[in-house]
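Work Package 3 (structural annotation) set out to generate three-dimensional models for the target panel prioritized at the project kickoff. During this period the team completed the workflow that converts sequence records into discrete structure tokens, so that structures can be stored uniformly alongside our sequence database. As a representative example, we reproduce one entry of 679 residues exactly as it appears in the project archive.
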Amino acid sequence: MKQIVIALSVALLMNGMSYADDRDGDQRRYIKMSTTAAGAVPGESVQFQCAAGGDWRLPLISAQITIIDAAREKVQEKKNMRIDGRISNYDYVIPADSPSGEWNYKCEIKDRKETVRKEARFTVAEALAIDPPPAEEPPVVYKDGPISAHNTITAYDGPATCIVCHQNEAAEMLDSLHMQWSGPTPDLTNTNGEELGKGVGGINTFCTYAMSSKGACFSCHVRADGNAPDSPQPEDVDCLMCHNDTYQRKFVADEANPVTVTDYLGKVKTYVFGKEDAQGNYTTIPDFAKMPAGTTMVNIARTVHMPTNTSCLRCHATAGGGDWVKRGDMGLNSANATVAQDVHLAKDGANLSCVDCHSALNHKIGGRGIDLRQTEAEGPTCQSCHNDAPHSSATLNRHAQGQVSCQVCHIREYAKGGATEMSRDWSNPVWNPAFCSGQGGFVGEEVKAANVKPEYVWFDGTSSVYNIGETITPDESGVVHMAKANGRPFDGKSVIVPIKRHYSSMPWQETTGQIIPPVIMWMFMTGDFDVAVQKSMEEQGMGGSYSIVEADAEMLITHGVDPKEKAPSCVECHNSSGSTPDGTGMVPFDALGYHTVPAAVSSCTLCHERKSMQWESMHQSHRQDDISCASCHTSEPTGLIKAQNVLCSSCHGNKSWKSEGHKKHIDKGLDCVSCHTFS
């Protein structure tokens, strides 16, 4: 196989680009043409830029490029370029079997009044041949085999190869949160439903502010240009990230613009990051060093497949900076989970795949949890596969139909396949050689744990998640809650769910009440968190001082379901007294409000005279009478919602109150809040 390199035959070199700026046409309107001057090998991308010079009526309405190879064949014809003001860009991968020699590219730019065309030349030179792999090395085997419809692919020129046939799918992806990094937020109670996400207003308790990471947080996500704030184009949809598990990629390194820093230990180090164009877009190219020997992009394109567990886990398992780090209920080895680790994913268990639950209609995927902002599709539920009465026991079915989520009993522990991060302290830098694309970086001190018992909270499906620019106040313990589930006991819609609670140290400005989003790459490079915070304050025009506060985030645990044999028995949660003390069983009933009842309820005199009955029998009797949970499990009432004579007459004529009147109202299904106020 031969490599192809680019040799430019133009007059001017500047900042690593080759420029053609011949104004032999209309002097009022001309095109300044350029292309990257660095060498390219098969599969690597060359960037073309056509900038409008002179008196144009902005914005441009069209910019197209035609590329002609040395055999005078049009390999790209009138392809739309990305337009940003006066500048248009186009990325093209030189195929491995391209002819060497002099190539041409033509730009055609239009504004509201005129069209200007321009042509420039460059040379594709033949490089030295690469030695083939040793004969004893086994050939690459693609597990799904060639797809017949793809056998006609003879060259891969990036996402455009896919989009030729899959235009609808590309359009769907453009509108997805995987591409946009933001979406509608109907399930956040601290917003008005506006579009937010990791790319818009996002900050978390792990690597904090993704948009300041200089591409570190973009490396595994779908977008080929890696730049979440920029509006994506169809050619930015890197289909192979989800549709070929062999495919690996990397950013084009910007060797011409290194960053040299002195870290907190006084050591000088130079970092090289991804190359950005004038709009801040990165360029991704295949990383053949991480793919099996002999892999070609043509074979990758021919062997695409539907997303597998490995496809999803390549990003979701390593979020937060490493395997198992962030979510706690999934890791890379979840793709081959044991039954004990995840009965749903295990090959000898249910043998499900991620997309069996997280279906992707029109490339929109359901499933939000507590700490995520956007919702783009209806989330999966246990009842999608299991009915409302999945147990043979009526008592257990009552739990499933009531306030206890299935996960409480069927996920006894999380981080069963690897240790997960429980807290991160930025004030104590720890060197991690894998950070910054293998160049190494400083991370806050991580406390990790495996086989962790969850905490439990009430969750009604909505939550509050902090967004940049909002005010937030520490609680009485000095903790700011950056992601918190909404829900309360016995409101008819909240259920108890297991969570992982993650702690971190965050910069908080008391004068504004805002969390400062650190320019986190400066922490990675220097190990000095204050530098990262000060850089952010400079960028955002924030003056004054700040303090470090403890922050936490609640994260829903919903993967890693146990085999049914591991479900708890009754005595693991209850002692049959109706007031099991916290700490003696699985579930903290006091903390969850189960034992918050008025004195008259405890004495059984709220509705009738005092009676003696075992707790379980008493509870079952009241349930059979359809008395709502909230009729007993509530705080002491503080008064009536209206004056008694007005309250009574609002439903019926005035009647004298009798001792059995309260019971009659409850028997009719009225909840306490129908008449009473509560603090």
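The chain has 16 helices and 27 strands.
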